[in-house]
Amino acid sequence: MTATAVRARGARQRGLWATTVGKKLLVAVTGLGWIGFVFVHMIGNLKLFMGPEGHGDSRPALNVYGEWLRDLGTPALPHSVLLWLLRFGLLTTFVVHVVLVAALSWRNRAARPQRYAKTAHVQANPASLMMKWGGVTILAFLLFHLAHFTWGVSPDIEFRRGDPYGNVLQAFYHRPWMGAIYLVAMIALAGHIYHGIYSTAQTLGINRARREQLIRRIATGTAALILGGNVLIIVGATLIKNPGY
Ligand code: HEM
């Protein structure tokens, strides 16, 4: 058996993780999973515009939506169990995405001839640099974001559990610097989504010349939709203060 055949058999036995194309595929799938989450999350957050009595029952629509998420799966499952399973899935997907991206980049570096070691930064292309620093920005944003709205450990707002509507207004209303932090993160996210979709098409081998324009349109459309929706929420929360809140 040749060395290549031995390596291929070893890779098959160790699973998808072991091959470069397998790793790229998992990076793409986990990335697409997160795009799905970010889109659904944005649709949910747009309920901010329904105001403090969105469902006509004196509760903000955004809070009712939060409660609905916690009630998912009941009564078959106890309260919040399905939400925790979804959170676990989201976290696992995130970790797999980051670990595999790191593994692929180490592999690339190791494969580079020694003489390029000192000039590695000159060799890196702008898209991969943007993905790297965009990814770091998104990770920092996520920690900042969760500290504010999920863990409630950010000292600049009086966090109220079960009141995401009030928490979002506290964080953004008349605080343009908070909006600016979010805008930077949303732009980094849009760039990441655009390039991520484009690279996925490459990984899947569907980026033939005649499909190039279509793939770019899908990537641009998805990134623009998510950027536009989130910017609307940020601007809305910065400018609109609802009575009673
Ligand atoms: C305008 C932009 C955004 C706003 C106003 C916003 C608002 C919120 C709020 C209020 C919560 C707490 C929900 C609750 O407790 O019911 C939350 C949770 C969360 N957000 Fe965002 N979000 C935004 C963008 C994003 C983006 C771009 C991401 C990901 C890249 C993200 C990821 C998350 C995650 C992972 C959670 C925790 C979900 C959970 O554990 O249930 N958010 N967000």
Give structural attributes.
binds protoporphyrin IX containing FE, 71% helix, 3 helical TM bundles of succinate and fumarate reductases, mainly alpha
Give a quick account of the main beta sheet: strands, pairing sense, barrel closure.
Answer: none
Identify the CATH architecture: Up-down Bundle
Order of secondary-structure elements: HHHHHHHHH
What is the CATH topology descriptor?
3 helical TM bundles of succinate and fumarate reductases
Structural class: mainly alpha
Strand content: under 5%
- For the CA atoms, what is the radius of gyration? 22 Å
**Distinct ligands:** protoporphyrin IX containing FE
Helix content: over 70%
Q: What is the residue-averaged pLDDT?
A: 89
The first-level CATH class name:
Mainly Alpha
Oligomer: single chain
What is the CATH homology-level superfamily? Fumarate reductase/succinate dehydrogenase, transmembrane subunit
End-to-end separation: 72 Å
- Residue runs with pLDDT of under 50 for 5 or more positions: none
Give the number of helices: 9
The total domain count is 1
